[in-house]
Amino acid sequence: MRNLLILLAIILISACIKEKENNFAPVLSTIKAEVATPFLVPTSIPTSTIPPAIASSPTLTEVMQNPLTTRHPTLEELQAYLITTSVDVFYPSDPIGDQSDVIAWYFEQVNFEQANLSETTDIFYQDVNGDGEVDLILSDLHPSWWGQGIMAIFLWVRDHYIKPFVVMGYAKYFPYQRVSFEDWTGDNIPEVIFDFKGDFGGTGYFKDTWMRYVIHCQESCSVVWNEIVAQTRRFNAIGLTSTIIVRTSNDDNKPEIRITTESFNAPEIGPGFEDDPFADLRVYTSTLQVYTWNGDIFEQSDEQVLSLPETIVSKAVLNSTDGPNVATLNADLTLTTDLNSEDFYRPSYDCALYVNGMILGEPFNCYRDFSTVEWVDLTGDGQKEVVVIAQVFDTQRLLAYQWDAGVAMQIADISGDIIRSDLYGVRLEDVDGDGQLEIMAGVLDYQTDRSTCKTYGEPFFVSGTEVVCYHELAFDDLLYSWDGNQFTLDEDNN
């Protein structure tokens, strides 16, 4: 009897299990159908269950987005693809030092329908990840008011291009950009170097900023180093950031970037300052920063202070004597209430040079606290001349007069751009050591990369065509020598 009861129990349990399997079969079938097309209903699947995308092989999303399979696509095909596909976009958190909210808003509104590719678009074919396949790099610039530029990298994988990696630049005024290829990581595979210059400004100031992006590609691309490499601040202020970049290797043979930075700035000038509108000059810390390649990024490994910050409140010398002769620099502050005048945001002094009460030459603009007058033997004849070095905005002007018994003769009127933190724009220097002073004048120069020049017409410039080229910030000096009558540009030494 006991054995019979056990047998009946086994039969009943088997029947129940079979019943449950029959009831669950349709549910399992439904689950399999959903898993087979998971990206059709992404919200119904936990993120953790979606397998990570592998750049070296196509993902389901790439297949569904109609990937770009044309090896050498036309501009129209690239345009259509960019409009309909998703892209990975890189932008620094604060690329220009201010207006970060505006920058972030712009970069989040990626809309290639507003950036029609044209004959000014550059297409490069270069293997940038070392897989033996040539990749496509696109560079397109819209050099207009509130202009922008894009640099897009399309890696070729097996039979199609994968999702593009895009770096974007943005400018209020007129942008410039350049794409080049150099091996920065020491693997004999070139990185993509994207240089972008943007102009920004507002009421009373104007700023140029040069950014550099180094993009390293393997299965995908990423920015492994980006910095501001130069900056100028102009209009009603003085400001300059300059860098020297040296690429080398450390003792462990790891690639390094060594960047020396110098920077100075003066506060914005505007009406309403109680005393002197040009209050002080701030010279910032000069540094040497070292970035070492760690296999993923250039990581900062060292920073050295080369010079400490300082504040220069005044460098004024407004009176100077040479025996009975007294030279005086008079400076009267002028302000305008005309909101339409640029001088409303650029107040300066009306300055005049007097010797023994007699005015020499015409009045000129200057900043009183950063202007000097002195007697110097410029011509080497044993007689001293009266020399004024007057600063106004971002330039210095040197005026020199011979003075003989109440008769003045101008022998120099030379201006130079302020390019050093010691406010060097013009200076006196015995360049060749012969005992005769020369006049040196600084030049804030822009070296043009002619290979980047493009001619733009409508719709960018409706009044005609303009040639747009990328240019880098550079510095130079001009030498003026005494010719027996006046100081003239020395053609042999410039």
How is this structure best described in words?
The chain has 494 residues and is mainly β. It is 12% helix and 47% strand. It has four helices and 29 strands. Strands 8, 9, 10, 11, 12, 13, 14, 15, 16 and 17 form a ten-stranded antiparallel beta sheet that branches. It has a five-stranded mixed beta sheet with strand order 1-7-4-3-2. The longest helix is centred in the N-terminal third of the chain and has 35 residues. The protein starts with a helix and ends in a 5-residue tail after the last strand. The N terminus is likely disordered.
Brief summary:
By secondary structure, this protein is mainly β. The chain has helices spanning 2-36, 60-64, 75-84, 100-108; strands at residues 88-90, 122-126, 135-142, 148-154, 156-157, 160-161, 165-170, 176-182, 191-202, 205-217, 221-235, 239-249, 255-265, 281-283, 286-293, 298-307, 310-312, 319-322, 325-334, 348-355, 358-366, 372-376, 385-392, 395-404, 407-417, 426-429, 438-456, 466-482, 487-489.
